[in-house]
Each structure stands twice: as structure tokens, then as C-alpha cells.
Design a protein that fits this description.
This protein has 461 residues and is of the alpha/beta class. It has two domains: 121-355, Aspartate Aminotransferase, domain 2 (3-Layer(aba) Sandwich), CATH 3.40.640.10; 360-459, Aspartate Aminotransferase, domain 1, CATH 3.90.1150. Helices cover 37% and strands 14% of the residues. The strands form three sheets. It has a seven-stranded mixed sheet with strand order 2-8-7-6-5-3-4, sandwiched between helices. Strands 9-10-13-12 form a four-stranded antiparallel sheet, with helices on one face. A two-stranded parallel sheet has the order 1-11. The radius of gyration is 23 Å and the shape is globular. The structure holds pyridoxal-5'-phosphate. Residues 96, 154-156, 181, 236, 240, 265, 267, 288, 300 line the site of pyridoxal-5'-phosphate.
């Protein structure tokens, strides 16, 4: 529904009969339900179209394994077609919430069906057949040992388990930057007050930190914040505001030399960039399943280096206290009652999806799309792009501003006109404010060009 300026009157996120019909045409509802284990009659509940009418759903098995050159549009459009995006939506906000591709969505729905149709599945949702395999895939994905992983519910949950469970004494200093995530800073301030810790924040809001020629200025600033009393340090791997990839390895190396425990906020990189925990050198790393990894909501992981696992105590522990049977390492943090079987299953399916395409090919593709966006935006008079040109310091999260336009105005103008482009506003300490596009595999080069064209239109005076 649109008025004569082409602006949607009804929020298309809420009402879109066209998309519902399109899913129905493809037989999506029916095919998911038919795949669910032995649920007699379930498919009739959703009135699927008959099999003869249904178009087959895109299947990850149809995508050649191993990825393709970053500019092979035919290949990557096939990958983009693996997502159940509503027609006419260009989704560029995986940094807040990724969307699951069809294979992951189906695996999750089938797992829900399985649990609800076979109560035997329910008695132990903490451990089930296949859980070890998912943990092994997760460890391989982030370059860690299998027993260094605890599955969590989100990045924040993992940050909480790692930080709140760490043994610290009154007077100990805990350090972060003012560009780190608000919820993490709140958590630190809360515990500092509760336990008599000293909470310090390094100010990296000066624009000269944003697009430096080298990350040395950030390293120097963080190191300057360290004192002999510093016991804990957390920084983002990729700043959610401007996409700056922090010099994590260098900072963690310095921290480890000084006996400081490091916990990295990895809300963005898993699924965006190839990762290896031992190369990164952090003590702990919290990531989500539901952003770039493309698993279900309410999923995540916490990596805890085996050597420091004894220093982190679980906040809730429902395992055995018998020393012979007690759960040790990162997994003790995960042993906190029942969890969601279907969410865990979605992690395995998401890792299969990534592994088919390969993280290397995905990262190269995302860098290609990002470069295209950065160059296109930079060519527009009045647009300021905050991403660094140095690939070591940027990846697929691109923030920018358009003249003196209010960021929420830009977001609204992009969303409420067709095609509906979904990006978000970002703001940070020191008055930083702009809009942010986070590119992922559901996005195509053509869609990046559409965003550039629309921004060029907004920038016209
Ligand atoms: C840097 C950073 N940390 C933490 C979070 C919170 O992540 P989650 O929703 O997985 O808890 C976000 C969310 O976008 C983020 O960008």
C-alpha cells in the first residue's frame, strides 16, 4: 500500500500479504511441516498448497561447496536466495540480528516438532545425541579446543558469565574503552559498585582514533589505561559503532604479559571473519549465534582458555560436585539446567551452512561488497564514511553520515520506500552519530548499488 510519493503507509514488517502468499506458493509451510518427524495432520494446520503446486525451496545442497570468487554474482545470488526474506526487503542489519537461511530455519522448526511430538526428547535438553558434534564444529569454527566452549544465550550472556564469574578482589581495577557496548559497561559499573572494584574507561572517542593509518594509537591508549592494579580488560573485537577492527591480538599479548585477564566482546565477527582463538590470544571471547552466525535467536557461545578456566566460577551450576564427576573447563558455565534443544540444533545447522560456503570465501565476499559500498558512498558529495581503508581495521560493518541529516530520518526514508532497505542508527561517546549497514550473505552487489543510489538521492541538496 503506498501513497503517491511511493511511501508505504503501513509498516511492511507487520503486514505483507504478498510475502505470505509467496511463501505459500513455494510450499514452504508444508515442506517444513512435512519434514518434521511424524506429526500426523500438522501440515493441514497451516493449509499448505498441494505438492504439485509447490515450487521447491532453495536448498543449501544446491550451492556448490567451497565458495566462489567474491565477484561471482551468479554464485552469491544463489546463496542470497537461501534466505526467506520478504520480497522487496534489502536487509543490512545482521550486526544486530542475523536471519537464518532456510536450511537453519528448517532444522530449528523440525527440532521443535520433534520435541513436541516425542516427549523423550525433552527430558534432557542439556545433553542430547548430536550435542558433542555441534560442540566440535563450533570449536573448529573459532579455532579452539572442544572443552573451551560453553554455549550461551547471547553475547551479553557470555560476557556476563565470563566477567561476573571471574574472581576479583576489592580494589582491583577493571578496564574497557568508552567505545565498548553499553550493556557491558553497565555490567562493569554494577559489579564495581557491588564488589568495591575500580572501573576505568579509556577514552577513544577522538576522531583521530577512527580512521588511523595504524592501530597503534588505540593500543597506546589502552596500554596507558593499565596500572599495576588492573586485573581485567575487555574490548570489542569489532566496534559496533564504526566497524573499527580493534588490535585485539596486540592488546591481549600486552595484557597477558602483565597478568591481566582479557574478555573480548565478539558480537560481530563470528560468521563475518575467520577466527582463531589461540592466534587472537585472548583468555575469553563471547559471541552470539544470532548475528553473523545466522543461528536462532537466544544462542551464543563463550570461549574460555583452558589455562584460566579455574579462575572463572559458574554463577549457576547444576552439575555434580563429586570431584570425579564434576564438569570442568568452560562447560561448567553452561551446566545450568535445561536449555532449548531447537536453538542448539540451529547452531549446528548454521555451522554446516557456513562450512559449505567456507568462512574464507564468505569473508572475501563481504569485504568485496563492503569495498563496493564504501567506494560508492565516498563518491557522493556530502557523505562521510567512517570505515577505515585498511582491511586490517575494517570488515563488513560500515557507518556513515549524510550531510547534517538526522540518522533516524535516513533510516526511515530507506525503510518506508520500496525497496525497503533495513539499516540502523548508531551513536557513541564523543558525539559520534551516523547510520550503519552491516552486510552479509543475504545481500547482493545489486542491492549494495541500490543503497548507494538511494543515499545519493538523499544527499542531493
Ligand atoms: C559490541 C556488542 N556487544 C554486545 C552486543 C549484545 O549482543 P547480544 O544481543 O548477542 O547480547 C551487541 C549487540 O549488537 C554489540 O554490538
Amino acid at each position: 500500500m503506498s501513497d503517491d510519493t511511493g511511501t508505504n503507509r503501513i509498516d511492511p514488517r507487520i503486514q505483507d500479504s504478498e510475502k505470505i502468499q509467496s511463501l505459500s506458493r513455494r510450499g514452504f509451510m508444508g515442506s517444513v511441516m512435512a519434514g518434521a518427524a511424524g506429526v500426523a495432520g500438522a501440515s493441514t494446520l497451516l493449509s499448505p498448497v498441494s505438492e504439485a503446486e509447490a515450487e521447491p525451496l532453495p536448498d543449501i545442497a544446491d550451492i556448490p561447496p567451497g565458495g566462489a570468487a567474491p565477484d561471482d554474482e551468479a554464485y552469491w545470488e544463489g546463496v542470497a536466495d537461501q534466505f526467506l526474506l520478504r520480497n522487496n526487503v534489502i536487509y543490512m542489519n545482521s550486526g544486530t540480528r542475523g536471519i537464518s537461511p532456510i536450511s537453519v530455519h528448517k532444522a530449528q522448526v523440525e527440532a521443535v516438532e520433534a520435541v513436541n511430538s516425542d516427549p523423550n526428547m525433552c527430558w534432557s535438553t542439556y545433553f542430547f545425541a548430536g550435542m558433542d558434534e555441534i560442540r566440535e564444529k563450533m570449536a573448529a569454527f573459532i579455532g579452539s579446543e572442544v572443552d573451551e566452549i560453553a554455549f550461551t544465550n547471547s553475547t551479553t550472556d557470555g560476557m556476563g558469565l565470563g566477567f561476573m564469574g571471574l574472581r576479583l578482589d576489592p580494589g582491583d581495577e577493571i578496564l574497557t574503552t568508552n567505545y565498548d557496548y553499553g550493556w557491558v559497561k553497565n555490567m562493569m559499573a554494577y559489579r564495581a559498585k557491588r564488589d568495591g572494584l575500580v572501573f576505568k574507561m579509556v577514552d577513544i572517542s577522538d576522531p583521530s582514533f577512527r580512521t588511523p593509518d595504524s592501530p597503534q594509537k588505540v593500543i597506546d591508549a589502552v596500554v596507558a589505561g593499565i596500572t599495576p592494579k588492573t586485573r581485567f580488560l575487555t574490548i570489542c573485537h569489532v566496534n559496533y559503532t564504526d566497524g573499527f577492527v580493534m588490535p585485539v591480538r596486540e592488546i591481549c599479548e600486552i595484557a597477558r604479559d602483565r597478568g591481566i585477564i582479557t574478555l573480548i566482546d565478539g558480537a560481530q565477527p563470528p560468521g563475518m571473519m575467520k577466527m582463531n582463538m589461540s592466534e587472537l590470544g585472548c583468555d575469553m571471547y563471547a559471541g552470539p549465534g544470532h548475528k553473523y552466525m545466522l543461528a536462532a535467536q537466544h544462542t551464543g557461545f563463550l570461549y574460555v582458555r583452558n589455562d584460566i578456566a579455574d579462575r572463572v566460577q559458574p554463577l549457576v551450576y547444576t552439575g555434580s560436585s563429586d570431584p570425579d564427576r564434576a564438569i570442568t573447563g568452560a562447560r561448567k558455565l553452561e551446566q545450568r539446567g535445561s536449555t532449548s534443544y531447537s536453538d542448539r540444533v540451529s547452531i549446528g545447522a548454521a555451522l554446516d551452512f557456513h562450512n559449505r560456503i567456507t568462512v574464507e570465501a564468505t569473508e572475501a565476499r563481504l569485504r568485496y561488497l563492503s569495498r563496493r559500498l564504501i567506494q560508492g558512498l565516498r563518491a557522493i558529495d556530502g557523505v562521510k564514511v567512517y570505515a577505515s581503508d585498511d582491511p586490517r581495521m575494517s570488515c563488513a560493518l560500515i557507518s556513515f553520515s549524510v550531510r547534517d541529516l538526522d540518522p533516524s530520518h535516513i533510516v526511515g526514508r530507506l525503510w518506508y520506500r520500496s525497496p525497503n532497505i533495513y539499516i540502523r542508527t548508531v551513536g557513541a561517546a564523543g558525539g559520534f552519530s551516523g547510520v550503519r549497514a552491516t552486510l552479509h550473505l543475504m545481500d547482493t552487489a545489486g542491492q549494495v548499488d541500490t543503497l548507494i543510489d538511494r543515499i545519493a538521492g538523499l544527499a542531493e541538496v
